[in-house]
Prior knowledge:
The structure holds two protein chains of two kinds.
Chain A: H1 17-39, H2 42-64, H3 75-85, H4 93-108, H5 121-132, H6 134-137, H7 161-166, H8 175-180, H9 192-204, H10 211-226, H11 234-243, H12 247-254, H13 265-285, H14 292-300, H15 303-325
Chain B: E1 23-25, H1 28-31, H2 45-55, H3 67-74, E2 80-85, H4 96-101, H5 103-117, E3 121-127, E4 140-141, E5 144-149, H6 157-160, E6 169-173, H7 174-186, E7 192-198, E8 206-211, H8 216-223, E9 231-234, E10 241-243, E11 257-261, H9 277-281, H10 288-296, H11 316-320, H12 327-353, H13 358-361, H14 363-366, H15 372-389
Parallel strand pairs in B: 1-8, 2-3, 2-6, 3-5, 7-11
Antiparallel strand pairs in B: 4-5, 7-8, 9-10, 9-11
Amino acid sequence: MQLKQYPAPHIRNSQTTRGVMADAIAALSFLYAMAYYYHGPRPLVMGLGSVAICLLCDVLCTVIARRRYNLSDYSAVVTGMILPLMMPASVDYRIVAVAGIFAIVVAKAPFGGVGHNVFNPAAAGFSFAAICFGDALFTYPPADLKLPLWGSIEFPLTSSPAFVLRLGGTPNYDSMSILLGKYPGPMGATNILVLVACLIYLVSRGTIRWSMPLSFFATVGVLAFAFPRSAAGGLASVVYELASGLLLFGGIFLLGDPVTTPKREMSKVAFAVTSGVMVMLFRHFGNMEEGITFALLVMNAAVWGFDMAGEYVARMIRRRKLETFEGAKVPKKV
Amino acid sequence: MPMFSKGIVLSQHKEPAFSKPILRFVHPQTDSLKLDLKKLTVQSKQEAIIEIARLARIVDERDGKLLYRKLKKCQGKAKIVIADALDDEPYVSSRIAPLLQMGEEVADGLDLCCTVAGCQEKSIMVYKMITDLEARIPRTIQKIKVMRVRGGYPASQERRLSHLGDTPRLVVGVGALIHLARAVYQQKQQSTVFLTVAGNCVSSPMNLEVSLGMTVMQVLERCGLSQQPTRVVCGGSMTGVSIMDTENTLVTHTTRAILAFRENQRDAHYNCIGCGRCEQVCPSGLNPMYIHRFVQTHYYKGFSLFDPQLCIGCGTCSYICPSKLEVSSSVAKAKAYVLGDSADTQEESEPATNSSKPEQGKPAPKQSPRPKEARQSPEDDLLKDLPNAQ
Lengths: 334, 390
């Protein structure tokens, strides 16, 4: 019988890219459930709209670039789901749409689509919206407020603990309400316990690796302890810095994006530590209350450097090990 | 060392082929070939065994080398003789099954090898991480200690035997040991090979003793095909070669398995998302993801940082890839490019330094050390190959 020839190996792992993305979607949907619980159906509409716009833009850009599009690759869905979660539940739908369009059309498609984008699309989209619509993006509805689906929000919008920290004050929320997310903030980023559960889920599924978020949070924690912004000082500062703003959310979902982070374990750790330092620099000296997306965009540009530095070290270790322990001569290119 | 993966644990799928008795599927004419030992004139017992191994044309199935050459090399030198039954690839049990069912012949073969090597110590190496076997692998077989190799796939023995250090050793496959014992005690020439027939298209998977030179189709029909396979593999499921023509591909000394698969999944076109799993599992500590990307973008200058020549071809990177990319074949291409390139330059530089060819030697140093044609040719080959692979 005549057959087609395939390269080895002839068995494959059952895990697919789609599965990796589906894991992220599952984790994100928990956050949507929490947002629904606090704010009613408005977050869900925001999420669905954002996903639809991101998918549409992705398909259009892929068709225009004449690339082959695979609809079962859910990367645009993940971007679309992350974007509204970083925003307040009261934000105008149009801002979400603009952020989604920017994320796909500017930050993703021109670089070559899935797997080739240098900058994290969600971080880029949010940063763009933050620069353009700062006021709307950084004023939040009270935590337990059910929001109307359409029309303007008539309730007074307040600032978040991140803003209080920015001013050098101390947020007056007790630790229980911070853990449960009962304080004004981005609709996906306030539920600390749910976020930790998401992190554990993603790490246990192997979608992200523990080394990155842990070293990132550790760096931020150490820096918050050493240089507190609020008068509370020390450990309270660590709690406030970690729990306020997008830090936890970004550390899990933006830093966990495999495309825009280094590949080797040691490069990952170095990248996460540097990102932590960069985030704290943005928080201390930046203009806005939330600088993690800007910090990550800056760091994303350096991923190639981190990877190549990691490869240099890896090559050194690899060759030394081979030559000393196994007595093998590494065939070198003459 | 954290950056060197200890391999991945694969589900082994060795049953039901493993537990079934090994059946003979032989050609009657070749099976009865006997050795003519009357003319044998040798001084010592050791040389007699080597001579018989040469006359019986025994080939070690684990590396494809002639057994008598390996024996000659280790004659009186090796300190330990190891029988290799390390079936770490899924579906394949063509060494461990003969070991358990023909233990006496294996022990005889090991004794003969020990006689040649002039040592007493002998051991059998099996893979430990086989979890789905119905039978238990005993601790000793014919009073020979069984060494269990732990860890995931690939259980490459060079790395696992590191506790032996520089001890000179002779590692022989189980099949070759059985054939050696048969050649010495029954004067039989090696005319068969042990192989596993398995896969989701084979209706009764089993281990067979097959005559050399049978076609793959004959072997598959012997075990029955339950459905039309899309992929027939000669060799292990991780490293074997997928064959195109089953009627004209023959069973050789190194055929360890014949696997027939049918895949229903349609080709998905995912992009690499850079998850880094291939880098995590690579036992050589390479970064297959970048090598794959460089091969796809024809950026051949960047390989020096990535050492693709250290690839052992285990295929774990392709196995683990969630985007189902052909990572390992890219790495193999890069390896061929790097090694081929340096081989070319050596060939070119040898006549240049050779004094017998002054007319070629003089202009050579003025040119670049790598002539353009020589450097282009492997690259052109790669470019030709690439569209087929994609």
